[in-house]
Amino acid sequence: MASAQPEQRRKIVGFYHAFADLMAGAVGGVVCAYVGQPFDTIKVKMQTYPHLYKNSLFCLKQTLNKEGIPGIYRGSLPACAAVVGETSVVFMCYGLCQKAICSLFRVDKPENLTTFQNSCAGGTAAFFSSIVLCPTELVKCRVQAMQEAYGNELGSVKKVGPWQVTKNLIKADGIGGLFQGLTSTWLREMPGFFILFGVYEFCRQRIAPAGVAKEDIGPVPTLICGGIAGTALWTLIYPIDVIKSRIQVQSMVGAMPGFGATFIKVLKTEGLPAFTSGLIPCVLRAFPANAAMFITFEWTKNHLRAIGPR
Fold first, then answer.
1. pLDDT tens digit sequence for 182-234
2. What whole-number distance in Å separates Cα of residue 260 and Cα of residue 206?
3. How far apart are CA 301 and CA 278, in angstroms?
4. If we measure between CA atoms, which residue out of 90, 86, 88, 112 comes closest to residue 101?
5. Rounded to whole angstroms, how far apart are CA atoms 55 and 77?
6. Do 30 and 303 meet the contact criterion of CB atoms below 8 Å apart?
7. Residue 90 contacts residue 125 (beta carbons within 8 Å)
8. What confidence tier does 159 reach under pLDDT thresholds 50, 70, 90?
9. HSE (side-chain half, CA atoms, 13 Å) at 115
């Protein structure tokens, strides 16, 4: 009976830690979404309709002229839902996957995992978070690119918000319609989070002074590590993100082929430059948004764990 109590306590602590990771990921996601939203809007427009804009600055000017300040924040609600859904699930699953890898390789605690093992935990966690992310990001991308998709029908565009887009999707394609682009989301997210968590943990290990744990490096180094990790993620997976955005946005005005067919079509008709269209606002967004996300996550997680069971 005595041995059962510590085991029960261990399960309670494990459950609470998973809950703390979930909540901390959600808070970090809100901060990430609103820090990066203007950059993300320009990125999506440049990815899906590059022929309309000669560069990112021109796209920004045109968006402000036609839609005003609200134009660069168009899709903020589904963007926030997308990022919060993704980060809460991915950080919770990341912690759980770290523990699973510890058991598999007989490592005493997650803090002692190697960079590669942390990367594997991140990539696996992204499989589950992609299922949550895909529907909300689909709606976000369509709302952001509504002006370009429907040309000069601005009056009707202003009346179409995220809820109407969602209802139209379900009405036209059923629940399955919300998962258009899921394959490309997996192809982007799993290697992306393999990179994100691997670079983040590697940077924390390298930046920590001798005798100081990576968890105790302080807020400024954590911001830097998070920013570097986010920049690495988006720079390396950006071409996949271009295809995902094309499938999700342009499917609202006509049927789109799958990932492979879309990739080949873009390559043949637009060439390699199409895969970097919108990269500049994406990279400009990646550093501050991910830096803010990681510092918020770490701070919230530590405070929640400090007041919870031990």
1. 888 898 899 999 999 999 999 999 999 988 888 899 999 999 999 999 999 99
2. 38
3. 33
4. 112
5. 26
6. no
7. yes
8. low
9. 13
The DSSP symbol for 178 reads G
Q: Give the Cβ contact number of residue 253 at 10 Å.
A: 10
Sign for the pseudo-dihedral over CA of 25, 27, 30, 33: negative
Segment 112-134 shows an average pLDDT of 93
DSSP structure class, residue 170: H
How far apart, in Å, are the Cα atoms of 274 and each of 180, 250, 268, 306? 21, 15, 10, 48
Residue 247: name the closest of 237, 260, 236, 256 by CA.
Answer: 256
Name the nearest CA neighbour of 55 among 205, 280, 248: 280
Start-to-end CA span in the chain (Å): 20
Q: Is 310 exposed, middle or buried (0-12, 13-18, 19+ CB in 10 A)?
A: exposed
**Cβ–Cβ under 8 Å, residues 309 and 12:** yes
